[in-house]
Every structure is written in C-alpha cells, then in structure tokens.
Design goal:
This protein has about 220 residues and is an alpha/beta fold. It has one domain: Uracil-DNA Glycosylase, subunit E (3-Layer(aba) Sandwich), CATH 3.40.470.10. About 40% of the residues lie in helices and about 10% in strands. Strands 3-2-5-6 form a four-stranded parallel sheet. α7 links the parallel β5 and β6. It is globular, with a radius of gyration of 17 Å. Pfam families: UDG. It is found in: Cytoplasm. This is Uracil-DNA glycosylase. GO terms for molecular function: uracil DNA N-glycosylase activity.
Length: about 220
C-alpha cells in the first residue's frame, strides 16, 4: 500500500501497511471521512510521524484519541492548532513544565515545535468522528500504534517514553527498559491531576537529564 507518511517511517513500517488489518483499517477510515466529519484533516493523520522522522526520534509521548471538537486536532497527541484554546490536559502539561523547569506557558498549544525536536506525539487511535469520542477505536489503529512502539523499542536505543495514565502505561508495557528510559505518572487530565497523580512528576527535567546523560541534546519544552 502507498501510505503517505514520512520516508524514514515508511521504511520501518512498510510491512505493517501490507497486512490485512491495515488494509481493512484504510477502507474504514476512507469511508468515515467520506460520510462524516472526522478529525484530524486527512493530510494530518500521520502528522506525528511527518514532523518527527525516525532517525531524529528521542522521546515518545502516548495519548489515546484525537480531540473530537471542530478545529482542535492536528495529528499530534495533546496538541491543538494555533489559535485554539488549550484543552484542560494541555493546560496542566504547561503548568507542570512551569513548576518543573520554569518555562511560562506558550500562547499556542501547537506542539509541532516539540515534534520537530524529536518528540513523537503518538495517539493510540489516529482518527475520530466529530463529537464522538472513541468512535474509531477497535478498528485497527491500536494494532498499528502497538507496532510503532515495538519498532521504536527494538530498533532504537536511549529513547525516553513518557507514559501518562493507565492507558499509556499499558500501551508502553512492552518497551525494553534495559535500552530505554520509561517514566510513568498519572494523566494530566483535571480528574487525575487534582487527585495528586500528575503535578510534580518532573518528567520534563528528568527526560532531559536522561538525554544529556546519553550525550543527546535535550528538548526545549
């Protein structure tokens, strides 16, 4: 299959694109986009990969679903398009960055600047129907993103995996901790953060400390 995705990822994932489940997934997604309003835009479905080539990858952050409100999703987990109000989880991410390393929250919630530095902002499910959270779950995306995580774990070294909340922890459970740095905490959603499971995890400084210890340039959060 000819999937429009950044070339270095295409090289590593080509076998996945040829599997029956992915062909069924592609048929489903095309049908959904033809019949309903879906997010992100078609050109942004693989944006997480397009902005973060495989050879530049340093950090993986795992989300669940794209935002399902109009104009929010841009293909990067937790990220929103320029000019869109910051969703509650993103607000708490920026608050923790301020507490941890003193950087003030940016005006834009677009995290492309992280991706371009080597942060793979990977949702488990890459598409969603407008206003219907979880509507594209169980159709094959999870199998694909499991394969992505497995590929990174096997073929890279010294990647930092930031696993926030129970879902992300399960998704990243098979990452080889002998080769990579795995940091876990509660989810940045208000429900989790207000119970004390998110703030002061210091993941952003700990991530950079690890990268620097491996002689890899840290992320400008």
């Amino acid at each position: 299959m000819n999937v429009k995705i950044e070339e270095s990822w295409k090289f590593h994932l080509q076998e996945e694109f040829e599997k029956p489940y992915f062909k069924e997934l592609s048929t489903f997604v095309k049908s959904e986009y033809q019949q309903f309003q879906c997010f992100p835009k078609g050109k942004d479905i693989f944006a997480a990969f397009d902005h973060c080539p495989f050879h530049r990858l340093k950090v993986v952050i795992i989300g669940q679903d794209p935002y399902h409100g109009v104009g929010q999703a841009n293909g990067l987990c937790f990220s929103v398009n320029d000019g869109v109000a910051h969703p509650p989880s993103l607000v708490n991410i920026f608050k923790e960055i301020k507490r941890d390393i003193g950087i003030d929250p940016p005006v834009s919630g677009n995290l492309e600047r992280w991706a371009k530095q080597g942060v793979l902002l990977l949702n488990a499910t890459l598409t969603v129907r407008a206003h219907q959270a979880g509507s594209h779950q169980g159709k094959g995306w999870e199998t694909f993103t499991d394969a992505v995580i497995k590929t990174v774990s096997e073929k890279k070294e010294n990647v930092v995996f930031l696993l926030w909340g129970g879902f992300a922890k399960k998704k990243g459970a098979k990452v080889d901790k002998n080769k990579h740095c795995v940091l876990t905490s509660g989810h940045p959603s208000p429900l989790s953060a207000n119970r004390g499971y998110w703030f002061d995890n210091k993941h952003f400084s700990r991530c950079n400390d690890y990268l620097v210890s491996q002689r890899i340039e840290g992320i400008r959060w």
